[in-house]
Automatic annotation (TrEMBL):
GO cellular component, one term: membrane
Protein name as catalogued: G-protein coupled receptors family 1 profile domain-containing protein
Subcellular location: Membrane
PROSITE patterns found in the cross-reference section: G_PROTEIN_RECEP_F1_2
Domain of life: Eukaryota
GO molecular function ontology, one term from the record: G protein-coupled receptor activity
Assigned keywords, A-Z: Membrane, Transmembrane, Transmembrane helix
The G-protein coupled receptors family 1 profile domain, residue ranges: 36-289
Principal location class: membrane
CDD domains xrefs: 7tm_classA_rhodopsin-like
The organism of origin for this protein: Rotaria socialis
Membrane-spanning residues: 25-45, 57-81, 101-119, 131-156, 185-209, 233-257, 269-290
Gene3D superfamilies: Rhodopsin 7-helix transmembrane proteins
Length: 339
């Protein structure tokens, strides 16, 4: 719908000023959040323990996160500050980098959700198939995503019509191909995000069922230990997984609607609001991860000179008689154990 300037208080100058102000607001918000989040990501990767299998997958997730915050977001900030990317030759590399890193992040989060579910309820199964279920999918995703978007953005035969004044230059031309666009946004996007959502819901339901059964049965030490372990792993998954769901599902659904029912107003909301939600997800993920890494959290607290209390169980001081075994114990007397 064309704007009737004679009957509207808005004119071209007003629109340009509003657009510039909107971009500057987004620029200052993102650049303010970028530095601490990027530094937190690098700190985690520097002190991350790759030996711990159950948290190893988070390290693989934080690598593309660091690249998004350090490289791709920097290009976006340049665009927001200048209002243009200036040269069309920069558009295809920007789109390829953007799509590759964000799609890799989505895939990894989906696989983290599935793998964490297996760790909670089928740990022996996944340990017997480490190459197939742990390292294999991660290696595949790290190869698949860049090859996919180099192919369909930079090599695919469509002729792009870029606008250097728009975010990611208005998007790639392959999205105009309905079949390829649906494959990417549904097969690679929405289906992965919904899988992450349903796995999180499934873990939550199973935790409640497990707790209900524990209340009805005779509680044992092993049962409580298993319950606490399940809750810990489940909370980690839900806290990080739902950040991705909130950041990506609205954006992907609106993109899908726009593909079938183009609307100027919807396109404006999509490019000016929802397109930036995934950045906030990437900015929050490092803080969510560090909360569940006690060793890294302690080192970060020490670096920032913050008080850090390592929680330990101290139910009571129990006095237990030590067995008289001269070859093992040098002090055959009562000892005090702190738990």
């Amino acid at each position: 719908m064309a704007l009737n300037y004679s009957s509207s208080s808005w004119n071209t100058t007003d629109i340009l000023v509003a657009s510039s102000l909107e971009r500057r607001i987004k620029f200052f918000i993102l650049i303010t959040l970028q530095t601490p989040s990027f530094c937190c990501t690098l700190f985690i990767l520097r002190h991350f323990s790759w030996r711990h299998l159950q948290t190893q997958i988070y390290g693989f997730l934080l690598i593309p996160n660091a690249l998004i915050l350090g490289a791709e977001l920097s290009i976006t900030l340049y665009y927001l500050y200048e209002g243009t990317i200036y040269f069309e030759s920069r558009c295809s590399p920007w789109i390829t980098l953007n799509y590759t890193l964000f799609q890799l992040s989505i895939f990894l989060m989906t696989w983290i959700s599935i793998q964490r579910y297996l760790f909670i309820y089928h740990e022996q199964f996944i340990q017997r198939h480490m190459i197939l279920l742990h390292y294999g999918p991660v290696i595949f995703l790290y190869v698949y995503c860049p090859l996919l978007y180099v192919g369909i953005v930079m090599i695919y035969g469509c002729k792009p019509t870029y606008d250097v004044t728009l975010y990611i230059c208005g998007g790639p031309c392959y999205s105009l191909n309905v079949g390829l666009g649906i494959f990417d946004w549904i097969g690679n996007g929405i289906s992965m995000e919904m899988t992450t959502f349903f796995v999180n819901v499934l873990v939550t339901i199973r935790l409640f069922i497990q707790r209900y059964r524990m209340k009805r049965a005779i509680a044992t030490v092993d049962g409580h230990r298993q319950w606490r372990r399940s809750v810990k792993l489940g909370v980690q998954l839900i806290a990080i997984g739902m950040i991705y769901v909130v950041g990506w599902v609205p954006y992907s659904i609106i993109v899908l609607i726009q593909m079938f029912n183009g609307s100027g107003d919807l396109a404006n909301i999509l490019s000016n609001v929802f397109a930036y939600l995934p950045y906030f997800q990437e900015l929050l993920v490092p803080y969510a991860c560090v909360m569940y890494m006690p060793e890294v959290k302690a080192k970060l607290a020490a670096l920032l000179k913050l008080p850090y209390i390592h929680r330990r169980q101290h139910p009571s001081n129990q006095i237990r008689p030590t067995t008289f075994l001269p070859s093992i114990s040098k002090h055959p007397m009562c000892t005090v154990h702190d738990h």
